[in-house]
Amino acid sequence: MARPAPQSIEEPHIERIRAFDLMRGFFLIVILLDHLAYYPSGLDIFTGRGLLYISTAEGFFAISGLVLGIVRGRKLLKKPLSIAAKLLLKRSVQLYIESIILTLLFTIVAWLFYHNPEIKYGAATPDTPFWQVVWQTITLQYTYGWADFLRYYALFLAGAPFALWLLRRGKWYIVTIINIALWWYYTQTPGGETWLPFSWQLVFYSGFIVGFYWPALTRWWRRTLHAWQRRAIARTITALFLLGFTVNFLLMLNANYWHVEPFAAWHNQYNMEYFDKDRLPIPRLAFGVICFWGLFALVRRYEKIIAKYLGWLLMPLGTNSLYVYTIEAFIVYFAHLFILPPQPFIAAAPWFINLALSIAAIMLVWTAVRRKFLFSEIGRAHV
């Protein structure tokens, strides 16, 4: 029999937070544009060309963990743990199988077009026995073709019931210690794709903890702080986010195009040390926290306006995130293979061609969601 939740934890009515869906929809568009890498397009001012000190991928995992903590943690608090665990593990298995299928499918395509220079790097060589590729994929030793996100998410979901069991008992600090220990362990390894989830789980489960305690945190925010204090904090973190993003964007452009010293040298020397995307050093994590909550404060403040003019685009993407990511993986892979190679630094096509292709890719994803293309086969993200 499941142990009842502590009496100090309540289960209030929790409405879906539209700002998170809008943000997640935006993150998915940026992920798509950065992987297409059709620059310049005019849209790259919103994306940073995937070269900033923070990425929307981290924001995507943070929101996914946060929403999961609310939907599968807090909202099901009065239900037996087994119910939430069953839902989490079922979704984990679905994504695990999907990541295997996508990895094998993309690998076969890579073998068919192996001499095409635009094939995404990292594919197993054609002389590799197929059974070996299958085995390495099943055992999480090999992934290819943007199926890595699905594999990470499957692993994080598999560990979520244990984290939820601890959170229901008020042991959030144990979850935090485990997350930090796994992240630290990855920083001491040579790195690599196989062990990368040890690093990125810190982002996901940090969001999961915040999501589980979201009602308590929002009550504290509203009841403990005066209105002027809340406004001051929100405006400060928003200003820090906008300032940090602007400075970071200018440093990125300078390092790759303008080469004004000593800023270019500083960027090249310290970028990987303090802002490595795999190891997630403390400066990158701190900058990520500022950017995430600064953007949240901005979206929350102008939520009605954003929803009115961009909700038709962002909401369908944000509420079907893992389905959208899977569709994006296909679009990016075949766009590079048959239409136009990525252009991170050299504009091989005029800006208006890049803009048209980028908009076409976004609308193709949106249309797939609206038409529910292969919804049952790919699986809809419910959180």
Précis, in short:
By secondary structure, the protein is mainly alpha-helical.
Could you characterize what this model shows?
70% of the residues lie in helices and 0% in strands. The protein is mainly alpha-helical. It has one domain (18-378). The radius of gyration is 21 Å and the shape is globular. The two termini are 27 Å apart. The model is unreliable at 1-11 (pLDDT under 50).
- What percentage of residues falls in helices of 4 or more residues? 55-70%
In angstroms, what separates the terminal alpha carbons? 27 Å
Mean pLDDT: 88
| Main β sheet profile | none
Shape: globular
Question: Mind sketching the topology for me?
Answer:
Blueprint: H1 18-36, H2 56-74, H3 81-112, H4 130-138, H5 148-168, H6 172-187, H7 196-212, H8 214-224, H9 227-258, H10 263-275, H11 282-301, H12 303-318, H13 321-338, H14 351-370, H15 375-378
Kindly list the characteristics that best describe this protein.
single chain; 383 residues; mainly alpha; 15 helices; disordered N terminus
